[in-house]
Amino acid sequence: MNFYLLCILVAIAGTLVAAVISCILPGLHVYNVMGFVVLFYLPVMDSIEPFLMLMFLAGMVTGFGLLFTISSQYFSAPDDTTAFYFMPTQKYLMDGRGHESAMLAGIGGLIGIFGLVLVLPFSMHFLQMLRELVSPHTHWLLGSIMAFLLISEWPREYGRGKIHLFSIGKEHISLLDSGRIPPILKILLLEKRINLGNNAALSKPRSYEWEILDGRRLIIIHRISEKNAEAGMELMVLMRTSKWIRIGEAYKSKAAGWLTFGLASWLGMLVFFKTLVPPERAFQTLMPVFVGLFSVSAIILALISKVKIPKQHLAKSYDIKGVTIAQSGGSGFLSGMFAAFVPAVTPGISATLGGNATGLRDDKVFIITGGVNRVVYYVGALCLFLLPLLHLRRGGMAINVNLFFVPQTVEQYLIITAAVAICGFIAFILLLFTSKFIAKVVEKFSYQTLNLIVLFIVMSIIFLMTGFMGLMLMLVAAMIGLVPVMWNSRRLNLLAVILVPIWLNMAGVGAQIAELLGLV
Amino acid sequence: MAALTNKDKMERLTKAYEDGKITKDQYLRNVAKFRTEEVATQTIPEETKQGAGEPAAEPPAVTIPPGKEKNVKVAEYVDRLISLGLKPSFKRDMLITHYLEFDESHMQREIDFNGIHTDIMKYYVEKEDVSDTAKPGPSQSLVNEIQAMTEPVETAPRGKIIHSEDIETDVPGYIISECKSCGKETRGRNHCPSCGADQIHRITEKQLVAVASVLLLLGVIFLGAAGAYSETEISVIGELGETDNFRQIRVVGKVADLIDFYPEKYEDTGTIRLLVNDGTGDIWVKIVPAVSEKYIRDSYIPGFGDMVDCEGSLFVGDDGYLQIKIRDKNLFRIMERVYTEITIDDLVPADIMAFEVGTQVTVSGQIQGNFYIDGFAYILDLADDNGKTVSIFIPDVIGQLTGELDLDEIYLARVRVSGALEWYESAQEWEIIPASTAGIEVVSGYEADTYITLTLDQLLNDAENYSGNYVEIHNASVTWIYGNGDWLFSISDSSTNNEISVIVDNSANASVPFYVSDTVNIRGMVIPYEGEFEIKIRAMSSDYSLRLSEMGGGA
Predict the structure, then answer these.
(1) Residue B1 — pLDDT band, cuts 50, 70, 90?
(2) Is residue A250 part of a domain?
(3) A317 vs B contacts (CB less than 8 Å)
(4) Looking at chain B from residue 156 to 185, which residues have their Cβ under 8 Å from any Cβ of chain A?
(5) What is the CB-side half-sphere exposure of residue B551 using CA atoms within 13 A?
(6) A347 with A237, same domain?
(7) pLDDT by residue (tens digit) across A25-39?
(8) What is the Cβ-side half-sphere exposure of residue A344, based on CA atoms within 13 angstroms?
(9) Percent of chain B beyond pLDDT 90?
(10) Which domain-ending residue is among A189, A216, A243?
(11) For A492-510, what is each residue's pLDDT tens digit?
(12) What residues of chain A lie within 8 A of the CB of B198, using their CB?
């Protein structure tokens, strides 16, 4: 058989494996799967051509890049790259637009593949020069990124601490307008165990709002349109805490963000400087950490929230405009390349930086950007590794591959690029059908049961791969992963788990800090 | 087909509801829609509907305070809509405040301008010129747009379903519109009131698949390009320079020096380094441990004089230093070795011009001596039947990489040695460097030599016949010694007054030094030397020289 054809067939096999794993083993990170594949391959590498193995992994990583969105979308098991557009996709899922959201991420993936195939081959000299320029400055670049993460953790709870108590009829408007609190309102409030004090004062700060200030509580009566109210009830009664309490709540998220950053940093130092999992599986040390921080915490949240997935609509067209695709594609490609190029920067961080740099805000933009970003990060890392003149070794993919293969020729790079393009197409088609299938059946399952099954699968995998200590490590990571979820801070801070240790090591003080922490 | 009036549509709608073909909710929503459309149609002034032909009165210029442009525009727009007869759900001020305070998605849910979506407002605010002087009132394009939005949808043919993918109906004259994104009813709006999805500007599955399939084409193009790059062009070493740094290059040339090996500390592998010359210059080729591991296992080791074809990324260092690293086992090839059969007799008298350095030759003979330079190399003496010898130089690195030399096996064995010729400058002679220890092929093992016992007279009278034979002379007397007498002396015996020289190989079995008049027994090989003959006492043989008595004094 023609060698090229064999290469492409092997790559397609990798994509199919990725599709199956994405659908039946949610929560499993592509690098973990890859680690295992390499582990089984190394003893037989004399019998199987390393380049063919590389093709298999290339197909798999391309497949994962596009298809992992299934796992995070429908099974609430995001990884470190999907966790950052997890919320918008969940919003889509709850609107019955899960398939559309998956396809938006898929569109992002397609853009990423196009970018890698069409841009990288012409960027060799530029990237080579860029590496020469950036390499000596990596440590302070990482430091700046961390500073940005900490500074940009801005109070976000202000004005959001409203609880919808109930709605009352519009016939009470006249009473409110005359400065009196309708008796029915007092009764309803009492039912909610809120007794209005004697000093409760009614005011009308806005034309569509009335406020009852009672001590530290603020009750707002909000006039709403007929769409959002039941028939005959047009006034929504909300409760909000007073200013200082609200300010406290606002800083709660900031404090939670910093706490998350600190705990994740500590965990990162722990796993970087201590071998907690069995030594023969040491190359999988980060796996329980990442699964715990991102997947397990999301699953626990899904279990607690008792969400029921609504019937999903299988859209045949998607609400997205060409200009939005172009904007998000550009932003995602740049940020993905940044993540693939700079050590320790993962797609979540680069997406935030890219979002800030390009000023794009929207759920759709977020999802597409995330899709581009993750594909460019994963597949781009492989392409950069093989790119002539550069051979940049970044990320788990390149490190694993480098165990048995050293890139050499232009021919190898071109074959890989061809495989990425072809597998990208196949993965997209697979995503189209798989997402439709899952969207059709997902509502028939109890979300809780589904999440319990996913949790069981994830824990089993961790236990099998890293043993009891790995499981414990995962649980600790999951607890830390819950902090931003519970206190509404950014999950991005969780990435301090790799950012801080790598930064400290690059600055040459990693060992000293570890010693200070009593880790060595 | 004549367009249906709203009255007709209402009647049909009511009938459809009574027949149970549509739900109450659908019925109510469509009724509400028709009413809105009626109001809109009736209240749009005729002059506005006529379009761009009518010149509008020039409005007075208004100075807008900085930062308030949006407020003014929104206010103008709201007022204009109200003047057109549309009834906003909110009071005027509230509507303006809403728009300015909330984001677009909130706006879509909160504000309902009797079916006219706030996108128009957004469009108006964003697209209209607010730079210098605002012109109150909507532009003609906006008016046209409002008209388009408020036109009754009666042009829909009977039973036509707009924006619907799953709901089927044959009820004429009204529209059941389903959101293309979430599947909920849109009430005929351009944006779904439930999920906010745009119903007009969308990308279809087919379009996406069509775009994605371009990737297939690109894949094939790249495969074709890979085919074009499958063989890297051979570079001329002498032409490589700094501008080629990090470029993937391929060179073909001869290994011009002994190879080096730098073992890894904890693994059975290491870096193999060789100097390659293609006639125009030298380049260092490094075979990295991951690749050399396989080569060592397969004894695929390049040797001095081998022609090699290697490909890797180039590193250009200071002072013209060139190096490529072999990182792929498929990118290094030793060209087929072609050995020329020659004899030691051809080689011994040859000068430097007789052969090209690195010429690959095969020579047969007997291993008659060995010498080990500690930590560096073995030097074996390969002798032919005439006693002429040539050195076989085997560096330790060859033993390390291709298997250790078995000295016991080759001891006095007749062998065929294949290797490359190197000119040994100090001794002004050619020596042979095998590429591997397997290059020393044992033809027959050691057989004990048969010695002919002769008198010196018998030997000298027929020396030419005895040349190459092993002889034994008893009770000879030492007549002359050279230096200390430990490697060259002369003997004579009672049978003749003539003498013969005896030469002793290094480490041969000889009781030395001798002194003149010592009585000795000699065993050795008769060899010709400069027109005469002498006896050679060989190392690694049964030859000997045994001193029987000390006639000349001394020890």
Answers:
(1) very low
(2) no
(3) 180, 202-205
(4) 165, 179-184
(5) 12
(6) no
(7) 666 677 777 877 887
(8) 26
(9) 22
(10) A243
(11) 889 899 889 988 988 889 8
(12) 319, 321
Of B432 and A160, which is predicted with more confidence? B432
What pLDDT, in 10s, does the model give residues A226-251? 454 444 446 778 877 766 777 777 78
Instruction: Please report the pLDDT score of residue B44 as a whole number.
Output: 40
Closest in A110, A206, A409 to B232, CB measured = A409
Which own/partner pairs from B167-171 qualify as long-range (CB within 8 Å, at least 24 positions apart)? Answer: B169/B16, B169/B21, B169/B22, B170/B21, B171/B12, B171/B13, B171/B16, B171/B21, B171/B22
B109 touches chain A (CB under 8 A): yes
Query: How would you classify the pairing of strands B544-549 and B260-263?
Result: unpaired
User: Hey, are the CB atoms on A432 and B94 less than 8 Å from each other?
Assistant: no
My answer on whether A28 and A52 are in the same domain is: yes
Tokens 């200009």 belong to which residue?
Answer: A323
Is A386 in contact with A405 (CB distance < 8 Å)?
Answer: no
Q: Is the residue at A480 inside a domain?
A: yes
Number of Cβ pairs < 8 A linking chain A and chain B = 168
Beta bridge partners of B492: B477
d(CA B138, CA B128) in angstroms, rounded, equals: 9
Of A117, A206, A317, the CB nearest to B203: A317
Residues A475 and A351 in one domain: yes
Domain that residue A339 falls in:
3-156+255-308+319-516
Q: What is this model's ipTM?
A: 0.78
Distance of CA B76 to the CA centre of its chain: 66
Shortest CA distance from A224: residue in chain B: B110
pLDDT at residue A445, as a whole number: 78
* Dihedral sign (CA A26, A30, A33, A35): negative
Please give the Cα distance from A427 to A19 (Å, whole number): 8
Q: What is the mean pLDDT of chain B?
A: 75
Contact residues on chain B for A63, CB-CB shorter than 8 A = none
What are chain B's domains? Answer: 6-150 (no CATH), 237-334 (2.40.50.140), 340-444 (2.40.50.140), 451-549 (2.40.50.140)
pLDDT at residue B71, rounded to an integer: 62
Residue of A nearest to B93 (CA): A207
| Co-location of A371 and A450 in the same domain | yes
Residue B505, both tokens? 């190989």
How wide is the angle at C-alpha B361 spanned by C-alphas B357 and B366, nearest 5°?
Answer: 120
Which of A207, A410, A432 is opposite residue B229, by nearest beta carbon?
A410
CA A195 to chain B, closest CA, distance in angstroms equals 31
Write the DSSP symbol of residue B237.
Answer: G
What is the count of structural domains for chain A?
2
What mean pLDDT is reported for chain A? 84
- Give the tens place of pLDDT for each residue, A442-452: 877 777 787 88
Residue B396: count other Cβ atoms within 10 Å of its Cβ: 17
Q: Please report which residue ranges of A274-404 form alpha helices under DSSP H.
A: 286-290, 297-305, 322-341, 347-358, 363-386, 395-401
